[in-house]
Specification:
By secondary structure, the protein is an alpha/beta fold. Helix 8 packs antiparallel against helix 9. The chain is 47% helix and 18% strand. Strands 3-2-1-4-5-7-6 form a 7-stranded mixed sheet, with helices on both faces. The protein starts with a helix and ends with a strand. It has 9 helices and 7 strands; from the N terminus they run αααβαβαββαβαβααβ. The protein is globular. It has one domain: Vaccinia Virus protein VP39 (Rossmann fold, 3-Layer(aba) Sandwich), CATH 3.40.50.
Amino acid sequence: MHYEPIKKSVSVFFNKSPYLKVLSYKLLDLLLLRTWHIHRELKNWSRLIPKGTPVHILDAGGGFGQYTYFLSSMDSGWNILSVDIQRDLCAAANKFFYDMGRSYVFFRTADLTEFIQPQSFNLILSVDVMEHIVDDVRVFTNFHSSLKDGGMLLLSTPSDRDPGDQPATDTPFVEEHVRSGYNIFEIKNKLKTAGFSEVETRYSYGIPGKISWRLSMKYPMVMLNFSKIFFILLPFYYLLTYPISFVLNWLDVVIKWRNGTGLIVKAWK
């Protein structure tokens, strides 16, 4: 299953105007369970930041800019740098944020295995990026070097478990991944090796989240890979399935799972 070509096809439409782009972000915020988890963690983190404190944030692997946009909406006093390896995405995002009047946001083309900006950021966010990178310890080390003392790294990434406490055996849905998921102890050890002093992990995509993901993401992507004509049917599909996904997403966020197909990881310098 190829995910990136579908994302690029959809982005062509939503990049036609800033308002369509914002609409795409709002839709993703509703549909993507990982967004529910990340938004909760970002809100919790922001409550610890005194108003008026200079804040510098790195969105590592910012892609289409969904999370950068959310961060930029939280506080216009924050300086946000988003880096991504795809030059076209960075150019489109810079134009969008310029058109939106958000001069405190900038996108830059960079390879995370090479990107270091020592002692620069209060927060580094990286959402579903590390499963695409072979040399992950090198990237974690770069993150550690780029954080200010006391700064936090927030990661979302697939785990190697399913909610039934068995190793995940399905063929990876996204073929662009270099690993199917992280073992929870593996990623803790790698972050400690990179220099992080404290690491917290929790599972996401428990039983309800896994069902929601299939309803809201996997099945539509299967249909779109089969034929682009399913773009016309998607609104009707989501009209029927989203109320179910909404409840499932809420359950996934409020319940602490012993296992799940996703990981939310926080690490401090």
